[in-house]
Design goal:
This protein is α+β, with helices and mostly antiparallel strands. 28% of the residues lie in helices and 31% in strands.
């Protein structure tokens, strides 16, 4: 579903700006799915930092949506990884991660508004992503 939403925005994921990619992720985050009735069954992770997962270092803004599975202790994670060439400005941002879950007392709209107003966006808005990668895995 996330890939389809990205494709509806541009002919290729790498053509999206970081704000467009974030807006598509938030659109995906607003869709309700059937998940187990348990704490933290549907969550969002906002994370960034410079990492080298093989192939060289890159700054990654990598929001994730995580779903609990029925009758299983594993989770499904849908990733939207937005990569940038590392720079001194991006390195100065350090690393950050924070979760939101559908059963939190904070409304999704309030959480996403707070994330969208964070200081790193002033830097990210000026940059073009080098790659946007969408994938799913299990924990």
């Amino acid at each position: 579903m996330l890939l389809a939403k990205v494709e509806a925005q541009r002919t290729a994921a790498h053509e999206l700006t970081v704000r467009q990619a974030w807006a598509v992720f938030l659109d995906f985050a607003a869709v309700r799915f059937d998940v187990p009735d348990e704490p933290n069954a549907d969550g969002l992770l906002y994370q960034f930092g410079i990492f080298d997962f093989g192939g060289g270092s890159a700054f990654r803004l990598a929001p994730v949506r995580q779903f609990a599975r029925f009758d299983d202790d594993e989770y499904i994670q849908v990733h939207l990884e937005i990569q940038f060439a590392p720079s001194a400005n991006l390195a100065a941002l350090g690393k950050h991660s924070e979760w939101w879950f559908s059963d939190d007392s904070i409304e999704l709209s309030d959480w996403t508004r707070a994330i969208s107003r964070r200081s790193e966006w002033a830097i990210l808005d000026e940059l073009n992503p080098t790659m946007i990668n969408i994938y799913q895995d299990e924990t």
